[in-house]
Amino acid sequence: MREVTAKSIKLNRDLEKMLAEALERDLLVRIGWGRNGDEKPKNGEIGVITHLPKKSRVLLLGNLGECCGAMNRGGNLTIQGGCSSMAGAFQEDGKLIIEKDAGHRIGSNMKGGIINVQGSVTNFAGESMEEGTILIRGHAGERVGAGMSGGTIIVLGSVGKEPGIGMTGGKVIVAGNCPSAGNGAEIREINPKEILEISEHLEPLGLSINKDALVLVPSENNSNIFEYPEISIMEGLEKILLVPSGKNNQLFHEKLDCDTILKTIDGDEGIVFPIPWLIEREKTASSSDHMSSKQPCLVRDSPREIDLLIIDQENLVKVYEYLPICSGIVLNLESLPKMNDAEIESIIVSLRSKMKNKSLVMLRDRVDRVENLLRMIIDLDLDGAIINAATPGGSRVSAALPRIGLASRAMNIKEQGKHLLIKLDENPSAEDFIIAKGSGCSLIVAPNNDEKLEENLVWLKSTINGWMSDIGVQNLNEVTRRNLRAIDHDTAAISGLRLIGYDRPLPMWLGN
To answer: How would you classify the pairing of strands 149-155 and 133-136?
Structure first.
């Protein structure tokens, strides 16, 4: 764990303890000062002072890194210093005051509350914000208000090029110099009603705005509206067959082990999967059924201790109360705004600070971005990745296998103890689990579309055991690509597997 990560997690955990007492006694939490009042400013911590609850008050001395004060749930945070990118990102309520300058994307994707920057900010201030107010006393860089759909941004200084680009709602008010509006926005003069509304924010601070200020609003002829292509799978693993290993069948009295354990990177603890299936569900209902109660799920809320939490933009703030309960998290990069590695790490630090020490942390993204996904889990020292086999326009899962395999081999994923999971969009068959294992994936992630989950799990367990006996393996980890065959030339060509009935691989770009 990097030094900045370790000290950031420590700061967050210390804050959690202080907040409990402070809220009970209605006290201000002061960070950055010693017991005798001597200054000990923080410097560079990332993902800190996040998820502040309502009525909490925090004063911090120092200059912070990415995502400080993010995911605010209604608290008040004052930073006597500056900060890096995405300060106050995803804020739902509350107030953030930054007494010096801030970096890129201040208030990115915020849904409410107030952010007050007493200095200047760099680019993309208020990017994709939905509600709330951002007040910038100094200057703002390029593309202020990019993609915003609601809320108000007030800049008392000047702004950089392309302000308001792609905005569909809300307004940007600029008191200083303002260049031509970005595509999708238009500029008009401020009206008396808006001056009165803004005065409610400015007068308590001893500030005012001139009548010659300009307002950026969405253009009536906005041509930036578009619809994303459907992400889907048009063919699963049904054209890949299983073949025996050449060993004798396992006897009925011999133990067959189809358990899979996802261990953390330190190798001490992990989650046990009786069947190599991470079941996707909205939430897990309590069950007394034998297998259902032991099979981990990937849920959005109300996890059990054995479950993983999927975290995306919609529940990033709301999962706060579930983080101490679950066995780990999966940060879904598919549904989050584009972020660089430092910003992603800061989000992870914020979440990890509220989890048990030995919890799993994984990332999820599409197979067409698998190389970058695997690079990130190595660079950020995470436990593994979920690779979504779906692609725009529809994919064939057999075509995803060699791409995953080559990327994994190039980065020595297996040797580093990291896990690869493949995401499908329908109920897997027993054969699918074994094929995924033979392809180097620890688990399949897929929904359960059968209401009779317990019966389905029992049937899958017995069928997997039958296949293991026939193939001649006692443990699923013994299955390799040599146990897999393509049913036709087309599948052999895209998967790199041997064609059924052939002793040697076809002369493809990838062989066995």
So the answer is: parallel
**Phi, psi values for residue 134, rounded to 5°:** -120, 120
CA distance 507 to 512: 10
Q: Give yes or no for a contact between 147 and 123, defined as CB atoms under 8 angstroms apart.
A: no
Sequence letter at residue 472? G
CA distance 160 to 364: 35
| Orientation angle between helical segments 341-352 and 370-379, nearest 10 degrees | 60
Q: What is the mean pLDDT of residues 282-288?
A: 77
Helices 397-410, 370-379: inter-axial angle, 10-degree rounding: 40
Paired residues of 257 in beta bridges:
475
Give the CATH number of domain 3-218; options: 3.10.129.10, 2.160.20.60, 3.40.640.10, 3.30.420.40. Answer: 2.160.20.60
> Which residue has tokens 């026939």?
470
- Region 102-110: mean pLDDT is 98
In the predicted model, what is the mean pLDDT of the chain? 92
CA-nearest of 39, 44, 14 to 29 is 14
Distance, CA of 162 to CA of 127 (rounded, Å): 13
Q: How far is CA 369 from the centre of its chain?
A: 15
Q: What is the DSSP string of 145-179?
A: TTT-EEEEEEESS-B-SSTTTT--EEEEEESS---
pLDDT of 382 strictly over 70 = yes
Residue 206 burial (CB count, 10 A) = 6
Domain boundaries, the chain: 3-218, 238-499
Q: Please state, in angstroms and rounded to a whole number, the distance separating the CA atoms of residues 133 and 130.
A: 10
Partner residues linked to 489 by β-bridges? none
Question: How buried is 458 (Cβ within 10 angstroms: 0-12 exposed, 13-18 middle, 19+ buried)?
Answer: middle
- How would CATH label the architecture of 238-499? Alpha-Beta Barrel (3.20)
Beta 443-447 vs 270-273: how paired, if at all? unpaired
